[in-house]
Sequence to fold (648 residues):
Amino acid sequence: MEVTRVENVTRIYKVGQMETQALRGVSLCIESGEFTALVGPSGSGKTTLLQLIGCLDQPTSGQVYINGKDVSKLNRNQRADVRRGTIGFIFQFFALIPTLTAYENVELPLLLIGTGSAERHERVKQLLDWVDLAAVAQHRPDQLSGGQQQRVAVARALATKPSLILADEPTANLDTPNGKQVMETMARLNRETGVTFVFATHDPRVIHYARRVVTLRDGLIVENNGVQDVAAQIGAGA
Amino acid sequence: MIQLLKMAYRDLGRNRRRSFFSALALAMGLALLLLMAAVVEGEMRGAMELGIRLQTGHLQVRAKSYNENKASLKFDDLVANPEQIAAQVASLAPVQVATPRLFASGIVASGDESVGVSVVGIDPSSPANDPYRAGLVSGSFLTADDREGLLMGQTLADKLGLKAGDRVNLLVNTSNGGVDQQSFVIRGIFSTHTPAFDQGTVFLPLTKAQAFTQVGDHASIIFVLLKNRDQANAVAAALQSSNGSRYQVVTWEQMNDLLVQTEQLSNAYMMFLYLIVLAITATVIVNTLIMSVFERTREIGILSAIGMRAGRVMAMFFAESVLLAVGGIVMGLLLGGLLVVYATDIGFYVGSIAGSMSGLLIGERIYGYLTPNAAVSLTVIAFVVTLLAALYPAVLAARMEPVDALRSGQ
Ligand SMILES: Nc1ncnc2c1ncn2[C@@H]1O[C@H](COP(=O)(O)OP(=O)(O)OP(=O)(O)O)[C@@H](O)[C@H]1O
Ligand SMILES: [Mg+2]
Fold:
């Protein structure tokens, strides 16, 4: 089943007189249960594409569908409503709310969709178990390591059982063992829960986790599925 | 939503010192407002009370043609048989005391100095004169049959270098339009702690004053104090109807109209000052909140990415402001309460400034007086102004585009 489809999407950023064509006509379809890497050199449009799929931004032209629904013309609140419960995000920086504990960070999306307290409690416990952080549930982000923080972010992204989780360079700020642990956690949750992951990365150590690789260059998709080629390109482009 | 409040509360705790100081700014603003209101109200009340006790009383019975500014001594302008009328007035239940008084203009001369004064004939035995009796700083009070004694205000005595027991010459205007003079002994020197009054008043026993000014058995006014000043109009109406056409009854509000007007003017003026204080306070708070919004740009991006609507983001920042405002208001009430208690119980010494303000009787000390009404309305105003000011940073937070917010600082 198709989770998201992007049709002929362009995105032009205007800064003063300067126009940047971040995407120049990208089409892509993501099926349910995929574990897909988005690769390409810096500035190729990975983040831009993730933001469009994630309903954080609007395309300059073209359509974005999420679960069959055209979201490319929605206003801000409507996009927030689409994101809530449907899309989970993991960012390069460990995007936790610093004043909330690990537990509360994971709980937050559930509160936003109005999950009842008993169910919420069960779910948060289950998620923290999955990412192996039950022991630090009451810690604030600044009391956690980078890897732990990123796994809290993974748990939070999963909380509402979204159709799609988008991760923008989730391992870029982690050392190798922690990056590995985060990727393995994501891959395991993808296998066990069937949730769809799309992640952008620069990191050759991470690409082999992907079961499909989409390569962007200068705002266009240049490779779709070519795992070996991509690894070589990353090496050359970086 | 509890979670919003929890986050707001913790956000305030995140930068405790900053939150504390912005709450303190509000607290000091509110405390200042309360103190200002208390001092102004206290000063007005004090002046009114002084004016009533020392000069006007709550009511005065006068001849229709009497003009208080001229201190006319023509029989037509005076009250005939004043003792009898005073007794009649005093018999009314709401009346505390009624006593005749005679006002004449005069000049006190000592050595080669002379000063214009208001010569007041009083019945020394009347309790209406207690404020003067209580203010005696040297010598003794007058007696009814004293033929050559007077009382002098301390400010005047100091100016002329006189003390109790000294002799002075007193000139007065008389009923027939002439002038008379006589040497008097200063029996006593009084102070009402009201320089404007003490520098221009000389007391004589009523009978002596009547003889001296040749008015016979007449007085300028019947000075009336009531048990409760709110009854002034009712009593005035009653007296007016029973005393026919020859006399008029004026109330303390009519006699102190300058003060009433001053109060209205100063209220308007104070409102302006209040707004300035509040504007400064609000600026400090808005500044803090804006800083906090920009510091948390990325957090706003995260919340938005999770699907929090702009309205909720705004509510969260607003909740923070409400907490800050509540904290500031509570602190302000404590701080302001202390200041107001100090102002009310101990007061502020203004000393000689009081004498230089003509027209108003102001004591040497100003005591605060805060009406519950003023306290409540200032508190509410401070709270509302703070919240209105806090809307802007909250809107700023809500307006942030999630994409830009997430990109910041990356
Ligand atoms: N908000 C923006 N305003 C202006 N230009 C932008 C903005 N966001 C991205 N761009 C430009 O669009 C192009 C694509 O950027 P994007 O961030 O999508 O690339 P990326 O593939 O994610 O790069 P990286 O690997 O460095 O993260 C770049 O040239 C970038 O400078
Ligand atoms: Mg990027």
